[in-house]
Amino acid sequence: MKTRSKLLAAAMTTGIGVSSASAQELVVGEFGGSFADNVKACYIDAFEKKTGATVVTKLANSAQQAAAIRATAGQSDMDVVFADDAFAVQMANEGLLVTLDRAKLSNVPEIIDGAWGKGDAYVAAMLGATTIIYNKDKVITPPTSWNDLFDEKYKGRVTIGDISGTAGWQFLAAVNRMEGGSLDDITPGIEKIQPLAKEAVLLYTQADQVVSLFERGEIDIAVWYPQINNGLPLAVAYPKEGAVGIRPSIMIPKGTEQEDLAHKFVDTVLDADNQKCFSERQFIGSVNKNVTLSDAVSAVVPSGEALDAMLFLDPNEMATKLPEWTRRWQREVLR
Length: 335
Prior knowledge:
The protein has helices spanning 4-13, 34-51, 62-71, 85-93, 166-178, 187-199, 207-215, 259-270, 272-282, 295-298, 304-309, 315-333, and strands spanning 25-30, 54-59, 80-84, 123-124, 128-135, 158-161, 203-204, 221-224, 234-237, 244-246, 248-251. Strand 1, helix 2 and strand 2 (54-59) form a beta-alpha-beta unit. Helix content is 40%, strand content 14%.
């Protein structure tokens, strides 16, 4: 495993802000954009205040975080990582994750049963969705279907995610199901998405890229997450065929020299007050049963018919499917 001094030097060269050396430092791999801002405000600040430790962050999407952990072969230079559950399963199956010790997590009784990964290799930190976000000043009639994204009026005014990010492969799964495909046969989805991908403004890899596109007025509609608390005239639409559920999860990679401290960070993330803080800022669901969301957030996160229609994909199955899906996307969509 890299020494802390080498890691901090590397962080400085890549532009990651690093505080002066302290007795304990925790390296957290997480997503960028508003996610990173809200993790800092709701989790990192609380953790640093409680423990006196310093957190260094490494920003990347789930596929990139998994690749980095895989490349170090069980000697990760990260202590805690956020990644979506399909990638968490891949890493767990490859023996790259530390089993979470529930005895070290005081908030376990408050966490919904469905949040825990097989063998406690990881735990979901929040509940979200891949759905449709649109500029309500430009899109007068709210979309009601995934098919609306393919309407000629949005040609050159839409963005979708690359398959390396969760929104990308989940959009493929949703469209493929809509077109009559299956997890074993994604040809209908690939063929449907090919022309849209070519006409899209961007196949984004980081969520903050979508914010920039909306801010510059380059897009009117996007396949994205319900993140609308940013001063933009954005609204959320849940397609009648079903949005796709997301379980961004938190895990401890093997090789950490800070296993006890990493457990304290996981426990901080699971705390009800911190969960509420993050949910309210990120517009995302909580996994802590004691969290009550405001009316504003409750109106945006999936509920009622939208929740009933939501597609939740088995992360264990998706872990086996994604490598081939990615190869086909790269051959047939990006060519």
